[in-house]
Design a protein that fits this description.
Layout lengths: L5 E6 L6 H12 L3 E6 L2 H13 L9 E5 L4 H10 L8 E5 L1
Parallel strand pairs: 1-2, 1-4, 2-3
């Protein structure tokens, strides 16, 4: 089942190499927003941005944010507040 257009990535243990494949799946499924909360949120968000840019020839447009000092419910509420091209339900993915 494909990922929803808005994802909150709840990092339980920080960056792991499996993130790369997960982000590529987000792109394949048309995810438009990823908010990262939890362990290494800033680092993970940076890596997501790098993967979306790739070599620069065909960057993938995805809004990203990180929330190191917020709770999961706060980040879900933020994601739910996004409207316009980012409207829709939010999916929480534990990583």
């Amino acid at each position: 089942m494909p990922f929803l257009r808005k994802v909150v990535l709840h990092s339980l243990s920080g960056y792991r190499p499996e993130l790369d494949a997960l982000v590529h799946q987000f792109m394949a499924d048309g995810v438009a927003y990823v908010g990262v909360v939890g362990v290494d949120a800033s680092r993970i968000e940076d890596i997501i941005m790098e993967l979306c840019v790739g070599d620069g020839a065909a960057p993938y447009a995805m809004l990203n944010s990180f929330h190191e000092h917020e709770t999961l419910p706060e980040v879900v509420a933020f994601a739910q507040s996004l409207t316009g091209e980012f409207a829709g339900d939010v999916q929480v993915v534990e990583f």
